Amino acid sequence: MGKKTIPFFLFLLLAGIIGCRGAGEKTELVVAKVGERSITLKEYEDALARFLPDGAAGAGSSDGKTAAPADDKAVMKEIKRDLISQLVEEALILQEAERMGITVTPEELTAQVEGIEKDYGGAAFKDVIKERYGDVSKWKEEIRKKFLIKKTVDKIAASRNTPSEEDARRYYDGHIKEFDFNEQVRARMIVVNSDDDARRIRKGLTALNFAETASRTSLSPEAKNGGDLGFFGRGDMPKEFEDVVFNLAPGEISPVVKTPYGYHLFLVVERKKGGRLPWAEAKGKITERLRVEKSDAVFAEWLDSLKRKTNIEVNEALL
Question: Nearest to residue 257, comparing CAs of 266, 268, 248?
Fold first, then answer.
C-alpha cells in the first residue's frame, strides 16, 4: 500500500466518492477498509468508470466475463491498484479532516461550484455531469469533498512550511548556473490570414500604433494584450519567428513573414543581453519553488505517517 505516494493533484482528478455505510443501508461488498471508513465496490467501480475512457473499465474485469489480451490485463490491473491506493489516501485525509474539525461552508462550496461552472459551464458540461454522476447534487458533493481535502492538505503543509531567505540564498549559490540565460527579445506580433491583409496593415504601421493595431486586427490569442509575446530566448519560439525578431533592433518592424501559422508582422520592443539573473530578482522565484517542494515533502511524510498508524485492508480479489 505504501510503496509510493500518489501526487495530490492526481487523486483530486479522480472522482471516487467515499463514505461510511449507515446502519439501515443494505450490506455492500467492501473493496477496502481504512480505519473506520469503508470503500464499497460500487464506489470503487463508479470512480473507475469516471476515470477511464468509455468501455475501458470492463477490460480484464474481476467478473471474468470480459476477455482481454494479457498485456491489457496487466495494465488494467496496475491502473486499478493505483486507483484503490488513491481512494485509500483520500479516505485517510477525509478521516483526518473530521478529526481536526475542518469543514467546507455552504458559501465556500457555492464559490467552488460557481467557479467551475463559469469556466466549463454550458449544456455540454451539464450533460457530462449527468452522465458521470447521475445528478448535479452528487457532483456538488464530490466538489465539497475535493475542496475539503485541499483545505486539509493546505493546513498541514502551511503549518510546517516556512522556507527562509537563507534557504533561498543557499539554493541560489548552490545552483548558480540555473540562473544564467541567453540573449532574450521582447516582441509584439500581428498575424492575419492573407498576404494582402498583412501588406495593407504594414503600410500604416508604426512602433507607436503597433499594439493598438494588433488588438484590432491580429488573429492570435495575444491580440488582447496588443500582440505582446513577452520575453523569449532562442529555442522558445518557432524558428520562423526567431529568424526574424533576433535580427531586428528595438523599435523596428519586420516585413511580412509567411509561416505555417499565417502572415506575420513583428515589432521588437526590447532586447536583453545574456547574463545571470541577480539574486534580488531570483529570490522570490526560489522561495516559491522551495515552498512548493517543501509542501510536497511535508504532505508525503504526513500521509505516510497516517498509513503507518491506520489499519488498512484491501480486498484484492475485487479489483
Answer: 266
